[in-house]
Amino acid sequence: MKISNIKFYVLAGFLALTACEGEEDPFNTDGSGFESQLAQLYVDAEALATNIYNRVDVALRDSVLNATDSAMIDGAKVTRSGSTVTIDFGNGVTGSDGKVRKGNISITETGSYMVANGSATAVLNNFSVDDEPVAGSVTAANQGNDSILITVNNLNYNNEFTFQSTKTVVWESGFNTPNDDSDDRYNLNGNGSGTETVASNMVVANISNNLVFDRICEHGVTEGKIDLTLSGDSVKYDNVGVDFIAGDGANSDGCDNLMRITVNQNGTEITVTRQFSGF
Fold first, then answer.
1. What is the percent of the chain where pLDDT is above 90?
2. Residue 262 and residue 277 in contact, taking contact as beta carbons nearer than 8 Å
């Protein structure tokens, strides 16, 4: 059964990892480590939003839930009552990704998420991941032709960062085969922004080349580029680019866990390759 084994790939933690051997880490040069911390907050929020969408998507497409109004999905109890679906983690559920989630996600469908013009809005209630509170909502609206518009509203991560975004998921395959995740593949494009709660430093993000998610790849993402623009009193490097690359270090893409990060300030670029832990 698909729901019990699916991996919820998330974009998380890659800017906190060390540079590959022999490369200088630009964020640790000249005392400029703040940029990585600010980018980390943005990436963590992006990860949470993507994870929530994946859980909503899997639940609403699940054949067992649709047949019986009840299912177990990645350890959480999922129930349907009318147009409301609840993903309940109770006092703590350890997911397939090793993270402990508490609280619940309440999903309200308008029409059916599975058909054009249908939508689903997920609201987080007393929700936390590894005891870090997360609040806000995510709406997934079916635009037809296996295209989903995702709107993230006021996602507050650990009382440190507030995030919002508008993105489009375009499914290449797998949307209409809910009992088989081996063909699940989609592209993600759009933009987002976030604000650090304490000092109001900001991040603006744009997916300049579509992120490609493939669930047969253990790392989740196989290609794509994200451009980050940082602003605030503590910011030294204005622009950070992230390019997911293949293991040979070339410009080709593939199922690997490497990315090329480029820091740009006033036309001066510094590049470093890092590993990421999976989506």
1. 48
2. no
